[in-house]
UniProtKB/TrEMBL annotation:
Compartments where located: Cytoplasm
Stated family: Belongs to the DapB family.
Name this polypeptide is given: 4-hydroxy-tetrahydrodipicolinate reductase
Disordered: region residues: 177-197
Dihydrodipicolinate reductase N-terminal domain ranges (all copies): 3-127
Residues of the Dihydrodipicolinate reductase C-terminal domain: 130-263
Active site: H154 (proton donor/acceptor), K158 (proton donor)
E.C. no: 1.17.1.8
Pathway: Amino-acid biosynthesis; L-lysine biosynthesis via DAP pathway; (S)-tetrahydrodipicolinate from L-aspartate: step 4/4
Catalytic activity: (S)-2,3,4,5-tetrahydrodipicolinate + NADP(+) + H2O = (2S,4S)-4-hydroxy-2,3,4,5-tetrahydrodipicolinate + NADPH + H(+); (S)-2,3,4,5-tetrahydrodipicolinate + NAD(+) + H2O = (2S,4S)-4-hydroxy-2,3,4,5-tetrahydrodipicolinate + NADH + H(+)
Gene: dapB
Function recorded in the entry: Catalyzes the conversion of 4-hydroxy-tetrahydrodipicolinate (HTPA) to tetrahydrodipicolinate.
Length: 265
């Protein structure tokens, strides 16, 4: 039996890869896509999607009314993530969401809807398996080396800073690290923002440049030593094994999971 899937945001860099992955994965069936344009057209009529004959909808509600859908893969923009999840829940569809920008309140409220409906949901700041391992290893290291700074580097089209991955990494570290202010207690910034953003005493630095995809290093400092844990996504295909895992996993849960680290043992 095939898992019937809709991809929202198919023309984005991540969306294109997700369409290819779903179309080529045994047991997955792409039944439609949701886009901001091309209503009523077939996806194969759009450049770059030759041979993928599924309808394009601009209205997600209408898509769910017309099609039998099990899972929504949402790879749109932060402004639409919550609305799309609520629409999915209302139609009995399990969302897998790769957009960031959710607040703790958003997650709490969406988890309540998920559990009330008995529908699994996954929000993943990062789908790269290596990035999830980086976060897990960083949490392990922070127990023994609590002085840490995070540098994340992304392409210059990314809208949010810091990245969801950097924030998630800091949150995981904070679970095992007592809050402490790092650096010289009397330090001053001669240029505002030079020390980066602050999260419970940790510093997070964001770089945005063309040519980058998604990169992060977590640097720990100790007496006479440093430890750097780094992950690099050099191509967006690196995210697809995680998207596939999320789709398979969301069918087995009845709550909202924030972060693939809760899925990977």
């Amino acid at each position: 039996m095939s898992v019937k899937i809709v991809v929202a945001g198919p023309r984005g860099n991540m969306g294109k890869e997700a369409v290819k992955m779903v179309s080529s994965t045994e047991g997955f069936q792409l039944v439609a896509v949701v886009d901001s344009r091309h209503e009523g057209m077939s996806l194969q009529e759009v450049e770059g999607f030759h041979g993928i004959d599924v309808p394009i909808y601009t209205d997600m509600q209408k898509c769910f009314e017309d099609k039998d859908v099990d899972v929504l893969i949402d790879l749109t923009a932060p402004a639409f993530g919550r609305k799309h999840m609520e629409t999915a829940f209302a139609n009995g569809v399990r969302p897998v969401v790769g957009t960031t920008g959710f607040t703790e309140t958003d997650i709490t409220e969406l988890r309540a809807i998920s559990e009330d409906k008995g529908l699994g949901a996954i929000i993943a700041p990062n789908f790269a398996i290596g990035a999830i391992l980086m976060m897990k290893f960083s949490q392990m290291a922070a127990k023994y080396m609590p002085d840490v700074e995070i540098i994340e580097r992304h392409h210059d089209r990314k809208l949010d800073a810091p990245s969801g991955t950097a924030l998630k990494t800091a949150q995981l570290i904070s679970e095992v690290r007592e809050q402490k202010k790092q650096g010289n207690p009397n330090e001053t910034e001669e240029l505002q923002g030079a020390r980066g953003g602050e999260f419970e005493g940790m510093r997070i630095h964001s770089v945005r440049l063309p040519g980058l995809v998604a990169h992060q290093e977590v640097i720990f400092g100790g007496v006479g030593q440093t430890l750097t844990i780094r992950h690099d996504s050099i191509d967006r295909t690196s995210f697809m094994p995680g998207v596939k895992l999320a789709v398979e996993s969301v069918l087995k849960i009845d709550t909202l999971v924030y972060g693939l680290e809760h899925i990977i043992e």
